[in-house]
Design goal:
five-stranded mixed beta sheet; alpha+beta; Heat Shock Protein 90; Beta-Lactamase; six-stranded antiparallel beta sheet; 56% helix; 9 helices; single chain; 453 residues
């Protein structure tokens, strides 16, 4: 808008100034030096050249403005298309990957990275990136909020454009930008509905700095993408909550309805057995077998209810959750189940606590279903930097090299969960000698990543 105003003033004043200048040239220079016809001819040529130059300058400016407008329109069209592609991603991981890929494409940058704030608000993790060299697994990378471009953006909640990183040594901090040979960087808040989720950064290794309008474009894209990320998170939480509520409802229905009805039938059959007396052994034996069958059905249903109980485990709650798990197993089966703990548990991430809980749940469930054990011990110990979970029973055991199919599935489940935790899972068992399941989880604190963006 300011450029148009300047052009309007120039277009209005330039012809008047040109005419005045031409008059001065004619009267002060040409007429004293040349005859009148010659002076008029030269003045006409100068006027024609001036008009041509003025017209050419105006059209050049208009062409430049048109090119800028077309470029801006193309950028915003690309932004709209990229936003549609991003919001169409089917899962959160794919959505995060799409965000950095499209941000890199939008600004034609060499590097793009998305850093998300941890729940504590004191650390950030590298959630996705494009263009960086080899680095550790994304899940292990922890970047302090203090220091670096992301710190300034988190503090100000405003876009940051760094035209020349070499002149900003204060931005190195825990992220030495020079290590990736980045010349210029633009970082913008990744916010949804006024809530800061993280920082979206792009960088170039060539000496052409980013422009302010590119920062505005990236900010618009980041706001759009952040809403999609937050929506995806909320959807995942709602879906998980719905599944847990449904599992709890089924468990309650089985316990309060089916089991109570079966138990009432069992009591009735026992009463009939007593009334038959000792003289009718045939019907009495059949009824006793039916009672035993009903007892097995009730035990099986209790086991299923035990498996359906939802696991609500978060940081600091693992010990309590395991204690509840042990009490549920004890009340559902009558087995002597004990929980032993050793040492002070370190802070755990939600996914670590939940993974350990599920391994314990699977191991206890296998004991209840297959081991015919009379005693079961769950042990949780911490020997820095390893958290150890052991589930031991005195049951019939099995050959780990040739487990039965139903046992094999449980072992596979525990193995998958251990792999997700980067943990070591070992199982010792032999026929008639019980079983020991041991899970060793590394939980040492994350070391800040010393790479650059």
């Amino acid at each position: 808008m300011r450029t148009l105003q300047v052009m309007g003033v120039v277009a209005s004043m330039a012809p008047l100034a040109f005419v005045l200048g031409l008059g001065v040239l004619l009267e002060m220079v040409l007429r004293p030096a040349l005859p009148l016809p010659g002076a008029l001819t030269v003045a006409g040529v100068v006027a024609a050249l001036g008009i041509f130059a003025f017209t050419w300058a105006i059209f050049s400016l208009l062409q430049d403005m048109q090119a800028q407008l077309e470029r801006r329109a193309e950028e915003w069209r690309s932004l709209f298309e990229l936003g549609q592609e991003v919001t169409a991603s089917p899962d959160l991981e794919g959505l995060l990957s799409s965000v950095v890929e499209r941000a890199q494409h939008l600004l034609q940058a060499d590097v793009a990275a998305l850093l998300l704030l941890e729940p504590s608000g004191e650390e950030m993790r590298l959630a996705a990136h494009r263009g960086l060299g080899p680095e550790p697994s994304l899940a292990t990378i922890s970047l302090p909020v203090e220091g670096g471009p992301q710190a300034l953006v988190v503090k100000s909640k405003l876009p940051l454009v760094v035209p020349d990183c070499r002149r900003r040594p204060d931005l190195d901090g825990p992220i030495p930008l020079g290590q990736e040979k980045l010349m210029s960087v633009v970082a913008v808040p990744f916010s949804a509905k006024g809530h800061l989720l993280g920082v979206l950064m792009v960088g170039n290794r060539h000496p052409y700095p980013f422009r302010d309008n590119q920062a505005q474009l990236l900010s618009a894209f980041a706001n759009w993408a952040a809403v999609a990320v937050e929506t995806s998170r909320l959807y995942d939480r709602m879906r998980s909550l719905a599944l847990l509520e449904e599992r709890e409802r089924i468990a309650m229905d089985l316990h309060d309805g089916v089991i109570q009805s079966l138990y009432a039938v069992t009591l009735g059959l026992e009463a009939i057995t007593e009334e038959l007396g000792q003289g009718q052994t045939g019907p009495k034996a059949a009824l006793e077998r039916s009672i035993d069958d009903l007892g097995r059905v009730i035990r099986d249903l209790r086991h299923y209810i035990y498996d359906l109980r939802p696991a609500v485990v978060s940081v600091g709650d693992l010990r309590r959750a395991l204690a509840e798990l042990v009490e549920e197993a004890k009340s559902a089966t009558g087995i002597d189940v004990r929980l032993e703990t050793e040492g002070i548990l370190p802070p755990l991430k939600d996914e670590q606590a939940l993974g350990i809980y599920h391994v314990a749940q699977e191991a206890i469930s296998n004991v209840i279903k297959h081991a015919r054990a009379s005693r079961l011990t769950v042990r949780l110990a911490y020997h820095r930097p390893t958290l150890i979970l052991e589930v031991a029973d005195d049951g019939i055991g099995f050959n780990p090299e040739e487990p039965r199919e139903r046992i094999k599935q449980g072992l596979r489940n525990m193995s998958d969960r251990a792999r997700a935790l980067a943990a070591c899972l070992s199982i010792r068992s032999a026929p008639s000698q019980g079983t020991l399941v041991r899970l060793e989880v590394p939980v040492e604190e994350a070391v800040p990543w010393q790479r650059s963006l």
